[in-house]
Structure formats: structure tokens, C-alpha cells
From TrEMBL:
It is found in: Cytoplasm. This is tRNA-2-methylthio-N(6)-dimethylallyladenosine synthase. Residues 158-392 form the Radical SAM core domain. Its EC number is 2.8.4.3. [4Fe-4S] cluster 1 binds at residues 28, 64, 98. The lineage of its organism: Bacteria, Pseudomonadati, Pseudomonadota, Gammaproteobacteria, Aeromonadales. One of its GO terms (cellular component) is cytosol. It comes from Candidatus Anaerobiospirillum pullistercoris. GO terms for molecular function: 4 iron, 4 sulfur cluster binding; metal ion binding; tRNA-2-methylthio-N(6)-dimethylallyladenosine(37) synthase activity. The keyword Transferase applies.
Length: 456
């Protein structure tokens, strides 16, 4: 048991320092949001964050379970830290996020060095769990809570960079047959509209220029309005766009099945919405889409993209594709390639199907070899890359408005910025430009980034 002194409240506000913590995060933006809120919560409880894990009193792991490889990462990381002497028997390890909810008490057997298991819905109880473990030495597994409880219990968010994630709904009720998310994050529930707007106003007051609304399927947002009615995602978009200081608005993820005309109208009406939208298609084969329980056909998807492109001709579309879903034939894969060539995605994230325990697809026969799936994945990725490069080349010589996000990772003398269509631009400029929007001319196209010069 670690000899960590529990939080001591002296006069209601002043708290003694109770130790240091380090947060490691894997997975989607919803986890990044949760990890940031955990940082605020730990700081409010008197803990001090460490960028490096070595020597931290508490290590908090915010994990992803979407594919087996994602899940393995946390366990591999703990072993690596143990071998490197980064952690020792005094380190309090708290594993949270989607693996926490998925495996719950099994985790204590899988990895005995873990003291606390929490889930996406119980992150707000973490300081209490740590004090309790520190006082008693009894391990804790606490993964169940109401979907929105954490949002009410977390302190106001701290100051971050110029772009902020705002979770608008927790969970997912779609239950696509391959996906573990509905079982790790639970049934879908939307946050009340005013809570979201208040959070955005706080971000703007901290200098945030770009808001990214998050949910597993933001189109189905149905939060309550202040007068007790049910809102819609399109309403929320108009409300957020009306907040003074929000200069760029993004949202992810939009599911093709509930991409209604009111959302397309909002994209048309609101220039603050970025020229980039991520709409995962998963497959181009109607037979596979049906087995995935996606509730749309590849032609529905084609029509949807047509409508969005008519509403906003400059928009860049990215997608997710799963290769090798159980029973996927070469004909099914050819349909996916046909769709990719029809839509010409700006970018795509593609994955080999990973069997997730407890999901309906895990029961299906899966006769195709991993080798064959890998070959198909390679063919798909080559094509997606070809289109990504084509769009980047098309940006050469154009003028773009970018949000300067920070210092470039590769060269400290350069800045890193992002275009409306989500391309990273490297430029020369003073660090004082960080957090501002500037116009740049695109002067060079590199593999995954662009080079730009600030317009004087
Ligand atoms: N809510 C989003 C997706 C979230 S998960 C949506 O419905 O679009 C992110 C991506 O992981 C999915 O789009 C899918 O392509 C991939 N994915 C999910 N489960 C998977 C599995 N079992 N195997 C491989 N990829 C998977
Ligand atoms: Fe998973 Fe489907 Fe929900 Fe996306 S919409 S999180 S793929 S169940
Ligand atoms: Fe992973 Fe959970 Fe997000 S499984 S993709 S971290 S919702």
C-alpha cells in the first residue's frame, strides 16, 4: 500500500498537496476529453500532474477496447514500465476508460499491480477511490453509474489550447454487430443543451477558438432544452454557432443513418462549421452493411454525400472502413473499393475486423485468413492514400485560414496550424501567434502535412 496522505480540507478551499499523478490515454477523442476532465478533477483535489510517469504517486490509464490490439496496449505499457523501473510496488495504478468497463474485476487478476478499476462513467469518483485505497489498501472496482452523473460532478474545465473537445452525449445505443462501445460506455444519453453551451462559453473565455462536439453518434443528440423540450443536433449546432468567440466548429462522429436534412441545412447555413466531416461508412457491400446492422445501403451513403457536397461544395469527407468482417468475400471487398473510388474520400481510417467478446458478430463464422485480410487492407490503404495526396496537391498555391495550435513537434522554430479541412500546416512565425487564426499561402505539399507562409 502506498503511503499517500489523503486530501486534507483545511478551510473548505485550501487543500494540502496529496501527491503527484500522471495520465496516459489511448483511444478516441471521447477518452481525450475524459482524460482532460480527470486532470482538472485531480488538480482540484490537490494532486500535481507529472508529464512523465516515472516517480508519479498515481498513474491513471484511460484505455480503449475497440479492437483487441487497442486493448492490449495498456497491459503492454504496464509491463514495459515495470521492466524499466518506471513504476514500483508503491505506485497506485488506476485503470479506467473502456477496458475498465469491459473487463471490470477480471482486470485485477490479469494485472495484479492495478489497484483501482474505473470506467468512462465513474471517472469523477477517482479522487475518492484513491483516498479510500490509500487508507485501507483494499482494491476497488467501480464502473457503474448513471450516464450523465460525471458531468454534474466534475469541476469546471481548466485552460487548454486553442481547440477544445466537448462531449455532448455519453454511450451508444446503435449496437452495430461488431462494436464493443455500447457495452463499455453503455446506452446513449444526451447532456442538456445549456450544460454544453455553458461549457463552451467557459472555453471561449479561456481563449479557445475551435470547438469539437463529441459523441459516438452526434446526429442522434436529443438533449433537453431549458424549457424541458427535446433538442436536436441541428438546433445545438445553431446554438453553438451563435456563441460569440466560437470561430470554428467541428463534430464527430456523424453516423450515416441519422444524417437528416436539418443537419445538412445547418452545414449550409453556418460558415463556422469546418469544411471537414468524418462519416464512417464501414463497408461498401450492402450484404456486409446489413450483417453489421448499419441500417443504410452503399447507395444511401452515396446519396447522402451528394447532398452534403451540394450544401457545402468545399467539404472534405473522411471515413472509417472495416476490412475482413466475418464472411466478407472478395466481391464484398470489391464493392468497398468501388465506393471508395466513387466518393474519393479525403482521408480514411481502415482497420482489420477484430472480434470483440460479447458482440453479435463474434458468433459469426470467419473463414477468411488474416493474411488475405491484410492484403485487402493494404490495397485499400494504398487507394485511400492516393486520394489523400490528390487533395493535398490540390491545395498547393491556395490561401487557407488556419488556427495556430502550437509549436511544431519536429522543429521548435516552426508553428503547427490546422486548416478548416483538417490538414496540418507547418509555418514560420512567432509563438505569440499560437491561439490565433491567420491566413496562409500553401507553398509545399509533404506526405501528410502542408507547408505555408503567413500572408502579410
Ligand atoms: N461511433 C462511430 C465509431 C466509433 S469506433 C461510428 O459509428 O461511426 C471507431 C471505428 O473503429 C469505427 O468506425 C470502426 O471502423 C472501428 N471499429 C469498431 N469496432 C471494430 C472492430 N470490432 N474491429 C475493427 N474495427 C472496429
Ligand atoms: Fe459502435 Fe456503431 Fe455505436 Fe459507432 S454507432 S459506437 S460503430 S455501435
Ligand atoms: Fe475506444 Fe471506448 Fe472510444 S472503446 S474508441 S475509447 S469509446
Amino acid at each position: 500500500m502506498a503511503d499517500i496522505t489523503t486530501s486534507l480540507k483545511l478551510d473548505g478551499n485550501l487543500k494540502m498537496q496529496v501527491g503527484t499523478f500522471h495520465v496516459a490515454v489511448w483511444g478516441c477523442q471521447m477518452n481525450v476529453y475524459d482524460a482532460d476532465r480527470i486532470r482538472d478533477l485531480m488538480a482540484a483535489s490537490g494532486y500535481v500532474e507529472q508529464v512523465e510517469p516515472r516517480g508519479a504517486d498515481v498513474i491513471i490509464l484511460v484505455t480503449c477496447a475497440v479492437r483487441a490490439k487497442a486493448e492490449d496496449k495498456v497491459f503492454n505499457q504496464i509491463s514495459a514500465w515495470r521492466h524499466q523501473g518506471v513504476i514500483n510496488e508503491r505506485t497506485i495504478i488506476a485503470l479506467g476508460g473502456c477496458v475498465g468497463a469491459e473487463l471490470a474485476d477480471q482486470i485485477l487478476k490479469l494485472e495484479p499491480s492495478i489497484a483501482i478499476v474505473f470506467g468512462p462513467r465513474t471517472a469523477h469518483r477517482l479522487p475518492h477511490m484513491i483516498s479510500s485505497y490509500a487508507a485501507t489498501g483494499d482494491k476497488i472496482v467501480d464502473v457503474q453509474a448513471e450516464a450523465l452523473e460525471k458531468f454534474d460532478a466534475l469541476p469546471e474545465q481548466g485552460q487548454r489550447g486553442p481547440s477544445a473537445f466537448v462531449t455532448i452525449m455519453e454511450g451508444c445505443s446503435n449496437k452495430c454487430s461488431y462494436c464493443i462501445v455500447p457495452y463499455t460506455r453503455g446506452e446513449e444519453e444526451s447532456r442538456p443543451e445549456q450544460d454544453i453551451l455553458d461549457e463552451i462559453v467557459t472555453h471561449v473565455a479561456h481563449g479557445v477558438k475551435e470547438i469539437n462536439l463529441l459523441g459516438q453518434n452526434v446526429n442522434s443528440y436529443r438533449g433537453l432544452t431549458p424549457d424541458g423540450n427535446q433538442s436536436r443536433f441541428s438546433n445545438l449546432l445553431y446554438e453553438v454557432a451563435a456563441i460569440d468567440g466560437v470561430e470554428r466548429l467541428r463534430f464527430t462522429t456523424s453516423n450515416p443513418m441519422e444524417f437528416t436534412d436539418d443537419i445538412i441545412a445547418a452545414i449550409h447555413d453556418l460558415p463556422v462549421i469546418a469544411d471537414y466531416i468524418h462519416i464512417p461508412v464501414q463497408s461498401g457491400s450492402d450484404r456486409i452493411l446489413k450483417m453489421m446492422r448499419r441500417n443504410y445501403t452503399s447507395d444511401d451513403y452515396r446519396r447522402l454525400i451528394d447532398k452534403i457536397r451540394k450544401a457545402r461544395p468545399n467539404i472534405y469527407i473522411s471515413t472509417d472502413i472495416i476490412v475482413g468482417f466475418p464472411g466478407e468475400t472478395d466481391e464484398d471487398f470489391a464493392e468497398t473499393m468501388r465506393l471508395v473510388n466513387d466518393i474519393k474520400f479525403d482521408s480514411g481510417f481502415s482497420f482489420i475486423y477484430s472480434k470483440r467478446p460479447g458482440t453479435p458478430a463474434a458468433e459469426l463464422p470467419d473463414p477468411v485468413s488474416l493474411e488475405h485480410k491484410k492484403q485487402n487492407l493494404y490495397v485499400l490503404q494504398e487507394k485511400l492514400e492516393e486520394y489523400a495526396v490528390m487533395y493535398s496537391q490540390g491545395m498547393l498555391g491556395t490561401r487557407q485560414r488556419v488556427l495556430v495550435e502550437g509549436i511544431s513537434r519536429k522543429n521548435e522554430q516552426e508553428l503547427k496550424a490546422r486548416t478548416s479541412n483538417n490538414r496540418v500546416v507547418i509555418l514560420e512565425g512567432a509563438p505569440s501567434l499560437i491561439g490565433t487564426m491567420v491566413d496562409v499561402d500553401i507553398t509545399k505539399v509533404m506526405t501528410h502535412t502542408l507547408k505555408g507562409e503567413i500572408v502579410r
